[in-house]
Amino acid sequence: MSDKIKVESFNLFYGDNQALKDIGLNLEEKKVTALIGPSGCGKSTFLRSINRMNDMIPGVSTTGIIEIDGKNVYREEQDLVQLRKNVGMVFQQPNPFPLSIYDNITYGPRIHGITKREELDMIVERTLVQANLWDEVKDRLQSSALGLSGGQQQRLVIARVLAIQPDVILMDEPASALDPISTERLEDLITQLKNDYTIVIVTHNMQQAARVSDMTAFFLNGEIIEYSMTSQLFTSPKDSRTEDYISGRFG
Amino acid sequence: MEQLVTNQVAEQKRPLSEDLKKPLPKILQAERRGRVLTYVSSWVLLLILFSLLIFITSKGAAPFISGEVSFAEFFSTKWNPGENSYGALSFILGSLIVSVCAAIVSAPLGIGAAIFMTEIAPKWGRKILQPATEILVGIPSVVYGFVGLTVVVPFIREQFGGLGFGLLAGVIVLSIMILPTIVSISVDTLQSIPRHLREGSYALGATRWQTISRLLLRTSLPGLMTGVVLGMARAFGEALAVQMVIGNSPNLPFNLLTPISTLTSIITLNMGNTVQGSTYNSILWSMALILLLMTLLFVVLIRWITKRREQS
């Protein structure tokens, strides 16, 4: 398996505050990697570094390298539009735009220059089918996306991300605002999607990490403590801090 | 001091749940006093509003009821009070057109400034533009009128010929006056859009301008419209500054450079010079009624827009 994302000695500062310390890890293509760790450990910050969403926060500076397909996304000539088209992101709070379901899906493709009606129609159907939402919404594509349930909204957001045809999908605690049944459907969807996409998921829920991911990285205070196969990390962690965390002694 | 301490101890001993079941008489009294005060205030407000409505309506409807002036006459363009012609159509149209034009000029400027303040340079935008718009609100309308008279009117006279007084001068002065209304309401609307929507757009690879034009403007349209309509209502009701620059001739407002009149300018100019109870005086009340009805229409329009926003 080849490495899709390579991270080398990556540091991130909020002003003088170092939030990520010397992060280094390789993420394999078409695998699900879970980032776990207590609140404030830097896992979300790291996730947002991959598609450079942290750039929008004033006072953030970085050093080190994050390579996607062998190219450093922090190099000077990196096109942010292109980067974010390749690296989609799903947020903690379902954030459908207050537009119709159809317009939510086509928002990305339209931005990237697709205007033909038939083509957009095809994208809408394909992505909604992929996101297991088509049957629920096919009769009301023109009604507002805000009328959907939380779980449906989150799947719509995933469909919206799929519509820009990324290679990598970043998910920032995508199930934390969902009920158990919606969460289960979302996890099924993630398992399906990993056949075609490289997925990085931040989660608070260790069972979830164990269920959906192939690899797991444990973050603590801005550092990666342990990174290995999920089955290994949860059954025989090498570091005592990892063991303390996964057995629920803190966090 | 000692007493205070013992009081505190006594309060601590009594559980809160007891207190809530049986409030002290003192608290009850304060409660009642507060309620009476707010009730009285709201009733006074309603009373004033309704007496105003009734007063203006009865005064304004009087010339039509008594048959002194017919509706057809009133809604004609023939204005010559000396010969008993009281056609107010030019003024109604004058008010409408000057306000609509002012809103058309002001809306893009105001919304643009609001976008700058919220999306492009929030830091210094807020620091400089926010106080600047507040100052614009605080300037009395007579000052606007005076500046219009000494700067705008001569400028128009030199650039385009004519007297300088007229529709164009009115539009310029009014569009500056209503700018702060549009800016502040647009800023509030844009700021109320949650951050996660912007992030969602940026994360899909949208540029800032795409996010503004395709997402923010679309989702905040009802709020922005409310600001524009409120600005228009303000322009419609403005009297003093308009009267100083508009020219005050009973012409139809179809040329930017001709001096015209508005409902408000006619009322302020003539209210003091007419005899109470005369037809001329009553007709001015009818115009006031028209102003009131139009304002009401603006309010209804804003309500309708906000309601639609809540539904969507």
What does this 3D model show about the protein?
The complex is a heterodimer of chains A (251) and B (312). Helix content of chain A is 36%, strand content 27%. Chain A is of the alpha/beta class and 251 residues long. Chain A has a single domain (3-246), classed as Rossmann fold (3-Layer(aba) Sandwich). Chain A has a 6-stranded mixed β-sheet with strand order 6-7-8-3-9-10, with helices on both faces. A 4-stranded antiparallel β-sheet of chain A has the order 2-1-4-5, with helices on one face. In chain A, strand 9 and strand 10 (223-229) form a beta hairpin. In chain A, helix 3 (101-111) crosses helix 4 and helix 4 packs across helix 6. The model of chain A has no long low-confidence stretch (mean pLDDT 92). Chain B folds into 2 domains: 19-65; 89-311, MetI-like (MetI-like fold, Orthogonal Bundle), CATH 1.10.3720. The model of chain B has no long low-confidence stretch (mean pLDDT 88). Chain A binds chain B through residues 51, 53, 56, 80-85, 88-89, 91, 93, 95-99, 107-108, 110-112, 144, 146, 157, 160-161, 164, and chain B through 194, 196-197, 199-207, 210, 214-215, 218-219, 312.
Summed up:
Chain A has 251 residues and is α/β, with parallel strands linked by helices. Chain A has helices at 43-50, 80-86, 101-111, 117-130, 134-137, 150-162, 180-193, 206-212, 230-235, 240-246; strands at residues 3-14, 17-28, 32-36, 60-68, 71-72, 87-90, 168-172, 198-202, 215-220, 223-229.
Shape of chain A: globular
Q: In terms of quaternary structure, what is this?
A: heterodimer
Spatial extent as radius of gyration of chain A: 18 Å
What structural category do the secondary elements of chain A indicate? alpha/beta
Please state how the strands of the largest beta sheet of chain B are arranged side by side: 1-2
Q: What share of residues of chain A is helical?
A: 25-40%
Number of helices of chain B: 13
Summarize model confidence as the mean pLDDT of chain B.
88
Label the overall shape of chain B: globular
Which superfamily, in CATH terms, is the homologous superfamily of chain A? P-loop containing nucleotide triphosphate hydrolases
CATH fold description of chain A: Rossmann fold
CATH architecture of chain A: 3-Layer(aba) Sandwich
N-to-C series of helices and strands of chain A: EEEHEEHEHHHHEHEHEEHH
Broad CATH class of the largest domain in chain B: Mainly Alpha
**Number of DSSP E strands of chain B:** 2
CATH superfamily of the largest domain in chain B: MetI-like
Computed over alpha carbons, the radius of gyration of chain B is 26 Å
CATH names the topology of the largest domain in chain B as MetI-like fold
The strand order across the widest sheet of chain A is 6-7-8-3-9-10
